[in-house]
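Our preliminary data section would be incomplete without showing what the modeling component actually yields. Below, a chain of 384 amino acids is followed by its predicted structure, encoded as tokens that our downstream tools consume directly.
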Amino acid sequence: MKAYATLRRGITVAAMASMLAAAPALAGTFVYVSNADDGDIGTYSMQPDGKLLPGARVKVAGVVMPMALSLDRRFLYAASRSKPFSVHAYAINPGTGALTHLSSTPTAESFPYISLDRTGRFLFGASYGAHLVSVNAVGADGRVAAEALQVVPVGRNAHSIRVDESNKFAYVPTLGSDEMFQFNFDAKSGRLSSNTPAVFLMKPATGPRHFVTSGDNRFLYVLSELQGTVTTFALDARTGLLAEVSAASGLPPESKLVPGAPRGAVGAPGGPPPRNTDNDIWAADIHLTPNGRFLYISERTTSTLAAFSVDGASGKLGYLSSVPTERQPRGFAIDPKGRFLVASGEKSETISVYAIDQASGALKLLDKYPTGKGANWIEIVSFD
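Predicted structure:
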């Protein structure tokens, strides 16, 4: 009997070991690229050396553009800007990175930007054309509620909406009216309410577009689409109000670009007459490294990525360099460990992977990989 019990224990241990070996390892880094013209999301597995292994192309809907990851890494959301405007929720397999469709939900308008609050219970959207932002509840299962909790009018051409690190405040840059809308955010109800003052007015023709906050929540960095500058704001932790600190240009000294104008306004009734925009500044995206030491922006006219150093004490930026990248780079992302940057181009059918020099912030091109048409947004999630 004793020998039989020992044998049973041995078989059980062996069986368990076999099961564990067969199960997918809960570790890996995965890259997702939305391809607007193809209406799908490309999936890739990122290796420790930065190489990408292409995975499945997941069909979504026409003109799929902005994406957002939940903070707990369980869900990916993608918004479609073709009618019917909608947001699509996917569960992420932590072992393989595979996406499983959960739901498709109507949105209040066409959104060029979506984000989640830090609890993952609320999804925000910003509409450039309709000049508004909205909030939808998100269930514990990742599905987005069909009815918006709030739809809030803001200034012209709302281009993004994000909460700060405390989850108490939210901000909305409006490119066409040069404003930063300042909101209080109630994470229990999901409701936005105007801060006092409700708006920080930036300099005329700044064109605030996207922004990021520092990890310590002391600073907020706003990218100007029309000037190619990044403005540093001090963020008051108690009130959530912004105070401008400084601005730094992301253009190289030899640049011949000129300040741009809001796209969509040129040639519109009552707007400025049509003109050649081939030499306009047309900045797009902004991201910080996880350690907060370096910041990067993309500029679409010259198809370049610019790097800045960040002074953690003052929040001030110093321009470092620019490197060529994919044609018309609307979106890029940095991996959660801060070792690699992946960039897409709306007029490219490849994406580029760069190594980030940990001492200087310099970008070194490692390789290019095939992607879909109209690639415009990248998200990276890591389970390592």
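The CA atoms of residues 29 and 382 lie 4 Å apart. Confidence is low (pLDDT under 50) at residues 1-25, 265-269. Preliminary results of this kind motivate Aim 1 of the renewal.
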